């Protein structure tokens, strides 16, 4: 049996209710995908453990509450064909459960990704397995934002980012549960706090 093209790596918590829906969407693509659902105690450990088990050329890191469109995998493969040495990412789009001001977060995330080169894990990060070996693994010691830090690791390692230009849907349930304003402020504080020292490292590597 030949190796799959894509290895899908999904970190999960014990109470992850959204997982069955994502697995159902992936089921029809098993001819080209192997799927690794990993619960290793932390998201970073789960992502790294999945990457070690992966047999595919392209590693695709998905959140359990991601929702695929009918052509998500086609868009992923097309992006990989265009830029196989890049770290690929989708545009963020919230699923139907998004209401009110959450759409502003969607717009802001996509603007941040394109202008600042900082996509997050809910945008379906993907890369060649050799690139992951070169710039990984995910930081297992950080308290949060391991996907954000991985993007910086890639950039500091000379890996370019490639926007696939297609949406990947994600649930807005955490905004409903926590509250839009509280969660938005928390997320902005956390990513900026992480980004500033990483941006400084990148500037020094480039001699700026």
UniProtKB/TrEMBL annotation:
Domain Glycosyltransferase 2-like, first and last residues per copy: 44-105
Keyword Transferase attributed: yes
One GO cellular component term: plasma membrane
GO molecular function: glycosyltransferase activity
Top-rank taxon: Bacteria
Compartment annotation: Cell membrane
InterPro entries: Glyco_trans_2-like (IPR001173), Nucleotide-diphossugar_trans (IPR029044)
Keywords noted in UniProt: Cell membrane, Glycosyltransferase, Membrane, Transferase
Coiled-coil ranges (or none): none
PANTHER family named in the record: GLYCOSYLTRANSFERASE (PTHR43646), GLYCOSYLTRANSFERASE 2-LIKE DOMAIN-CONTAINING PROTEIN (PTHR43646:SF2)
Protein name as catalogued: Glycosyltransferase 2-like domain-containing protein
Species whose genome carries this gene: Iodidimonas gelatinilytica
């Amino acid at each position: 049996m030949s190796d799959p093209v894509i290895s899908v790596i999904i970190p999960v918590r014990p109470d992850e209710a959204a997982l069955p829906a994502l697995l159902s969407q992936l089921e029809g693509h098993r001819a080209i995908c192997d799927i690794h659902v990993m619960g290793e105690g932390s998201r970073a450990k789960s992502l790294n453990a999945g990457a070690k088990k992966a047999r595919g050329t392209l590693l695709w890191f998905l959140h359990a509450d991601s929702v695929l469109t009918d052509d998500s995998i086609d868009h992923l493969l097309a992006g990989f064909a265009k830029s196989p040495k890049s770290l690929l990412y989708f545009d963020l789009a919230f699923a139907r459960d998004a209401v009110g001001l959450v759409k502003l977060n969607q717009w802001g995330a996509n603007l941040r990704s394109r202008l600042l080169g900082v996509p997050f894990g809910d945008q379906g990060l993907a890369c060649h397995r050799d690139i992951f070996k070169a710039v990984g693994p995910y930081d297992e010691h950080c308290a949060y934002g391991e996907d954000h830090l991985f993007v910086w690791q890639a950039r500091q390692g000379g890996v370019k980012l490639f926007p696939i230009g297609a949406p990947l849907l994600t649930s807005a349930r955490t905004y409903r549960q926590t509250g839009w304003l509280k969660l938005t402020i928390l997320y902005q504080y956390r990513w900026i706090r992480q980004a500033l020292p990483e941006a400084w490292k990148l500037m020094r590597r480039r001699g700026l």
